[in-house]
Amino acid sequence: MKAAVLHQYDETLERDELVRYETVPDPEIESPTDVIIRVGGAGVCRTDLHVVEGLWRNHADVTLPYIMGHENAGWVEEIGRAVTSVKVGDAVICHPLVTSGHCLACRRGDDMHAEESRFPGINADGGYAEYLRSGERALIKLPPSLAPQDVAPYTDAGLTAYRAAKKASRHLLPGQFAVIIGAGGLGHVGIQVLRALCAADIIVIDRSEAALTLALECGAHHAVIADGSEVAQIKDLTKGKGAEAVIDFVGEGSSVSQGLAMTRDGGYYYIVGYGGKVEIPTIDMITSEKTIVGNLVGTYPELVELMALADRGLVSLKTRQYSLENANQALKDLHHGLIHGRAVLIP
């Protein structure tokens, strides 16, 4: 099969060829519960850039060369002898983590903390290819309204945004405020999820006018340009008190300190993007009683819930499609901020 393969790390992301388009062996059934997927779409994620940079080399047990791509959807091509819930030809979306289902975390539905798992595209070959090896427990059948190439990025970007926005929606009341930092691939989904699950006023911050236009199209009530005055603007919009919830999809640079500054006393700061540091004096934690919440992708049931919203038209993805052989262009465009929404590779 054809695949876009990572052969070496590049901390600068300046090489012309970050991945190599080449012929590699097809994946094979290795376990009775394995499923081979014919990839219909593979999302291109900022995490993929971090993988290329080598940021994950000490956090994932992988040996180069290998195939990235952890946001995948397609059609069932082959099934292991124990598989009963899907059949060849079914259109499916893949939860990003393939788990055994035996550990206590799995039985509680806490997929991301499973003791036995593999993460295609992170610590195993992923979906930047014509075929992908996944597992029966990871698959969700798609309704006729949703095509694999249109929904692939939901498996990480969409699911991560859904998980954070769902947490926030549980305590947000009408008349309260939610701030979203970053209206990109995750943020534009998070806006729609908040609109679907709660009635809080949504304020979105981004450096890009185009991203803010997309945010308003997705249902944001207020758009704030990130020009150094955003904390003051948020305080003005929230009558000086800050927001009850801040969801930070950037997580680096000044967004962390600003996000905490925008969070009102007793409020919640949800950190999704990564690369920066959370630094706050303990006395400030005590006196403000702010809650800082980490978010790691999401569970299988949450992906089912997100697909239900997408099927009803309450959440949609803005995507830009590239052929698999143009994976380098997609990665470069993402790195240079030229993609508003999500990029998807089509084999």
TrEMBL record:
<dbReference type="InterPro" id="IPR036291">
    <property type="entry name" value="NAD(P)-bd_dom_sf"/>
</dbReference>
<keyword id="KW-0862">Zinc</keyword>
<comment type="similarity">
    <text>Belongs to the zinc-containing alcohol dehydrogenase family.</text>
</comment>
<keyword id="KW-0479">Metal-binding</keyword>
<protein>
    <recommendedName>
        <fullName>alcohol dehydrogenase</fullName>
        <ecNumber>1.1.1.1</ecNumber>
    </recommendedName>
</protein>
<feature type="domain" description="Enoyl reductase (ER)">
    <location>
        <begin position="15"/>
        <end position="345"/>
    </location>
</feature>
<dbReference type="GO" id="GO:0004022">
    <property type="term" value="F:alcohol dehydrogenase (NAD+) activity"/>
</dbReference>
<dbReference type="InterPro" id="IPR002328">
    <property type="entry name" value="ADH_Zn_CS"/>
</dbReference>
<dbReference type="InterPro" id="IPR011032">
    <property type="entry name" value="GroES-like_sf"/>
</dbReference>
<dbReference type="InterPro" id="IPR013149">
    <property type="entry name" value="ADH-like_C"/>
</dbReference>
<dbReference type="InterPro" id="IPR020843">
    <property type="entry name" value="ER"/>
</dbReference>
<dbReference type="InterPro" id="IPR013154">
    <property type="entry name" value="ADH-like_N"/>
</dbReference>
<keyword id="KW-0560">Oxidoreductase</keyword>
<dbReference type="Pfam" id="PF00107">
    <property type="entry name" value="ADH_zinc_N"/>
</dbReference>
<dbReference type="GO" id="GO:0008270">
    <property type="term" value="F:zinc ion binding"/>
</dbReference>
<dbReference type="Pfam" id="PF08240">
    <property type="entry name" value="ADH_N"/>
</dbReference>
